[in-house]
Please model this.
Amino acid sequence: MTAPTPHHFIALIEDACTSCLICVQECPTWCISLDSHHEEVSEPGARRPRTVSVLDDFRIDYGLCMYCGICVDLCPFDALEWRPRVGYQAEGRDDLVHDIARLDGGTSDG
Amino acid sequence: MIADDMLEVAVAEWAEAAREARDGGLPFLELLTVVDRGDELDVVARMSDASGRLSLGLMTRVAADAPRIESLAAVLPAASWHEREVAEMFGVVFDGHPDPRPLLLRGTAGAPPLRRGTPLAVRLERAWPGEVEPASRRRSRQQLPPGVRPEWLPGGSA
Amino acid sequence: MTEIAWLRLAADPGVRVGSLPLACCALEVESAVRQGALRAETAADGHPRETVLLVAGTVTAPLAPLVRMVVDQAPAGTRVVAFGACATSGGPYWDAPSVRPGADAAGAAGVPIDVYVPGCPPPPEALVAAITGREVAP
Model:
């Protein structure tokens, strides 16, 4: 038997994500969704507060995902990346929908 | 490679061209299908010799709004299944087909599913997660959901 | 009665594995056989302790009743695995009018699923993990 090849999964680097929606809009199977809101951030010395996008929710439905990697390739901020993964099977269909907490590196759901 | 030896014939000569190819040493039908070009449909067939090394593509065009063509089943019995599939998937009528029953689709009467103008209904029913609020901000065709064609939408170009 | 070419888990021949090879995911089952993780059942194997059915591929509307029939005929306690994106959700064909959005899709012919294995396709190692309930090492 050959050595097992780990199935990779798509990890979200939350701090790098700007909620630009490019990954969501380009996904051929529509398996990504995200929610965000705008916040004003005041920085010392700045004349007016800066508006930033804050990510509220980010989900990948691995039941639909084809692992094509289009989202990883297109992300302008490198907020999505491939990582080797354990634990990709599930006993419920809904358990295949991974939210921000489970997309942090595949360590929290093993 | 296919484009190199594609012979385009008039619709009226479709069956006769297939007969000539068959009698000229290409008795095997490898494929028969349709390419949806919008206003027209390309009907494409490929025939080969016994070795499979020598082959010829035959092509003709039919109008997309009333696609109709002579069946090749009398010339090449193998065309029967291909034509039944093309008939149900693309809505082409094959005149003189010996057995024009649907081949693959059952009880799914409606627009031919493989025509570009036939919407994938689920893609229109399900909310696209990439929708930007308000919807009026989404204007360009590039921002249509993947898998959705402009002519499927109300007011979309045909 | 639908005949299935039964397999056994090489590491634990008490586990009997049946595959419904509906589409390309069936090649991954074949690959697991090639890799030695699964093998054909022999007369010497005796009565299985556990039975696992794999729905490996796209469940189309005409095929759904057949899948239902095979699952209904399986012994009580059989675990049913949706192997791959198609059996899980319809996968890349979730929008097709003739494809059911998963083997468990609502309707008379849907079958209850015990384990979902995502991927298009999932690797053979994921198949073994789904059968044994043990995860693959990273």
The mean pLDDT of chain C is 90.
